[in-house]
């Protein structure tokens, strides 16, 4: 117990959340970084952004919503920023877990036929995955967020568009 082995992915996420002495979040290098700093820090802290793990679509919606609220960036900058956000604050881990775990007993296509709320997904997959692929609480939560976002209730999906 003295040296708990952390999975590599946890270390990466932790490093991404590390703070500089000034208390400002350390932002990963990349062409979108300056845009994020100049266009997104005036109304709220950038932590609001860097704590998220969102899909490309969700980042696109968010950036558009912020432009609607008054963030000033042109189309090219918005595209570059979304790519940066997806790379560094994306949901690749959720996608990976989903693909690994939910395809181990049946085809992933079967999942697409369902649209359930987060709570309903929780009840639905609880017994199912504990039979074959036990996941820890954190992974279970990540899977539920992913399922709710991509295979959520129909009316919820429609209002997001
Ligand atoms: C003109 C002010 C303003 C600017 C500039 C701005 N935001 Fe926001 N942002 C808000 C307000 C107000 C909220 C809280 C209400 C809401 O969620 O819409 C918010 C909330 C958010 C949230 C949290 C939403 C959630 O569901 O938790 C994210 C993420 C975000 N902003 C990202 C950005 C990004 C990325 C940029 C730069 C493109 C940006 N913001 C620039 C005003 C702004
Ligand atoms: C340990 C094996 C196992 C794992 C892992 C597993 N499932 Fe299943 N799943 C089943 C079984 C067994 C059934 C029901 C029998 C059948 O229809 O084949 C089922 C049925 C389903 C159905 C209903 C399909 C339909 O046609 O109605 C959905 C949706 C589903 N699973 C989603 C998921 C999701 C999402 C995950 C990942 C979080 C997952 N499953 C992981 C074994 C598994």
Written account of the structure:
It is a single chain. With 161 residues, the protein is mainly α. The chain has two domains: 82 residues, Cytochrome c-like domain (Cytochrome Bc1 Complex, Chain D, domain 2), CATH 1.10.760; 68 residues, Cytochrome c-like domain (Cytochrome Bc1 Complex, Chain D, domain 2). Helix content is 62%, strand content 0%. The chain contains ten helices and no strands. Helix 6 crosses helix 9. It is elongated, with a radius of gyration of 18 Å. 11% of the residues are buried.
Low-confidence runs: 6-23, 156-161
Total domain count: 2
Distance between the termini: 48 Å
Based on CA atoms alone, the radius of gyration comes out at 18 Å
Q: Report the principal-axis shape.
A: elongated
Structural class: mainly alpha
Q: How can the largest sheet be summarized?
A: none
According to DSSP, the number of beta strands is 0
Please tell me the overall pLDDT. Answer: 83
Cofactors and ligands = heme C
Which CATH C-level class of the largest domain is it? Mainly Alpha
What string, H for helix and E for strand, traces the elements in order? HHHHHHHHHH
The oligomerization state is single chain
Short description:
62% of the residues lie in helices and 0% in strands. It is mainly alpha-helical.
Please name the defining characteristics of this protein.
62% helix, mainly alpha, 0% strand, binds heme C, Cytochrome Bc1 Complex, Chain D, domain 2, 2 domains, 10 helices
